[in-house]
Amino acid sequence: MSEPQEIVETRGDDRVDLITSDANGDGKIDVWVSDTDGDGKPDLFQFDTDGDGKVDVTMVDLDEDGTPDTIVDGDGGLPPATV
């Protein structure tokens, strides 16, 4: 059984993936850049760093200034809809 994920706060409760990318060319999405409050600006960034198709690192930029306010291991309780 895996350990519970740390839940991170985002700017809103919605999620719109602005960018999804296969950065390493293995055919699986491994980068997600999302807007959670509907303003069209990214505030949630997630990365699959080991190629297993699951989020390994989540960063949240609450004030959208380009510097992450929160960085956690795992999906932060916000798994992407597309993997």
UniProtKB/TrEMBL annotation:
Residues 1-22, 62-83 are annotated as: Disordered. GO terms for molecular function: calcium ion binding. Residues 8-17 have a biased composition (Basic and acidic residues). SUPFAM superfamilies: TSP type-3 repeat (SSF103647). Signal peptide: none annotated. It comes from the Bacteria. This is EF-hand domain-containing protein. It comes from Actinoplanes awajinensis subsp. mycoplanecinus. The lineage of its organism: Bacteria, Bacillati, Actinomycetota, Actinomycetes, Micromonosporales.
